[in-house]
Amino acid sequence: MALLTPGESLQGAVSMARLLGIGVYRSDGSALTSGREAREGDVFLFEDEVRALAEMGIATGEGDFVTFRAFHSSLAGMGLTLTAEELARRYQAAAANPTSRSWA
To answer: Which residues on adjacent β-strands are paired with residue 24?
Structure first.
């Protein structure tokens, strides 16, 4: 809910990135928060991108959220081959052990 609250949206976006192991970096490349990037192609965000996510969170009302199945359907339309249940299990495994990459 922090993403939806104007005063807390930035902290919510930073916390979300931290929980997902995504590093947040300044434009000069110095780390605001280090992530688990281990190789080229791993996901990271720049500070401006996190600010944009926070603004998107504020602009998005609770009624704008989609179900997990609709989320899965969108990913499947982009080529994801996992079933909704398999994707859910991977999310659950990542949440249960965020420092491990065994769920990937």
So the answer is: 33, 45
Q: Note whether 2 and 11 are within 8 A (CB).
A: yes
Please answer whether residues 57 and 9 qualify as being in contact, where contact means their C-beta atoms are separated by less than 8 angstroms.
yes
Domain boundaries, the chain: 2-63, 66-96
Please give the Cα distance from 33 to 14 (Å, whole number).
Answer: 8
Please give the structure tokens belonging to residue 33.
Answer: 């928060």
| pLDDT > 90 fraction of the chain, expressed in percent and rounded | 10
As given in the structure block, the two tokens for residue 72 are: 């899965």
Tell which phi-psi region holds residue 42, choosing left (phi > 0), alpha (psi between -120 and 50) or beta: beta
Start-to-end C-alpha separation, the chain: 27
Strand partners, 45: 24
pLDDT tens readout for residues 85-97? 998 888 888 777 7
Q: Mind listing the pLDDT tens digit for each residue in 33-80?
A: 888 888 887 888 898 888 887 777 666 665 556 677 888 888 888 888
